[in-house]
Amino acid sequence: MVTVADCERVQASWFRARAEVLGGEVWSDGPLEWVDGPDGQTLMFPRSLPADAVARGVERAKRRGAGSVGVWLSADVDAGPLAEAGFERGWSPWWMTAPIAELEGGVDPRIELQLDSDDYGGQFADYRAQLALARLPVPRAWYAAAYDGGSRRFAGRAWSFLDGESAGVFDMAVWEPFRRRGLGSGLLRVVCAAAGRAGARHAVLNATPEGKLLYSKCGFTQIGAGITWWLHLP
């Protein structure tokens, strides 16, 4: 049975992998594991929050000129030290899971697994570097892009990432003009199927209220919730 702890483990593994592959940093300070990757400096699921270690992490972010520091936290962990350090409670990830075998669907020609992409430019040009994760020598991450019919207009994307027998679904989005056309469910099935061929038995993800409806229709069940905390720096 998949648990919230499994979801948290996969989430932390995804953040670590991106930092390690894309030139970021991962370090420990007592019970705290910090990750500095594409999403900035983030503290991943600590079981306790020593005030001095939190302060050292914040000082490191300030020296780097970071705009914010994020914390992913289990619902049962005392967040008092974060509040005392000036962090503000953020959005709540809703942890959901589904057996990959039950997510199978027909082939959608609008969805493509890719190892590289020329879909990103301008202010989004840096995103292309993340596709290095899809080219790891031992595949652990799969990227899929969605296109709008014959026009080949870039319509959305999704990732899956393998950790043991679980595959996390990450960074899934369909741009506003292309929603309600089945692209979201198509992306979900394609990236989960790719991870399934590599040995994953379960898919896990964190949903927002907006995304939960889609995931529920695709067979995902919510098993718990967490919380995020954020410190916005000058």
Straight-line distance between termini: 44 Å
Largest sheet: 12 strands, mixed
Please state the structural category: alpha+beta
Number of domains: 2
Q: What level of helicity do the residues show?
A: 25-40%
Low-pLDDT parts are none
- What proportion of the residues form beta strands (DSSP E)? 25-35%
Give the helix tally.
5
CATH fold annotation of the largest domain: Aminopeptidase
Task: Tell me what the structure shows.
- There is one protein chain.
- Strands 1, 2, 3, 4, 5, 6, 7, 8, 9, 10, 11 and 12 form a 12-stranded mixed beta sheet that branches.
- Strand 8 and strand 9 (153-163) form a beta hairpin.
- By secondary structure, the protein is an alpha+beta fold.
- It has 5 helices and 12 strands.
- The protein is globular.
- The chain folds into 2 domains: 4-94 and 227-232; 97-223, Aminopeptidase (3-Layer(aba) Sandwich).
- The relative contact order is 0.20.
- It has helices at 4-21, 51-64, 80-84, 183-197, 209-217, and strands at residues 25-29, 32-37, 40-44, 68-74, 88-89, 94-99, 111-114, 141-148, 153-163, 166-174, 202-207, 221-232.
- Helix content is 26%, strand content 35%.
- The model has no long low-confidence stretch (mean pLDDT 95).
Task: Describe the structure using short key phrases.
234 residues, alpha+beta, Aminopeptidase, 2 domains, 12 strands
Question: In a few lines, what is going on in this structure?
Answer:
With 234 residues, the protein is of the alpha+beta class. Helix content is 26%, strand content 35%.
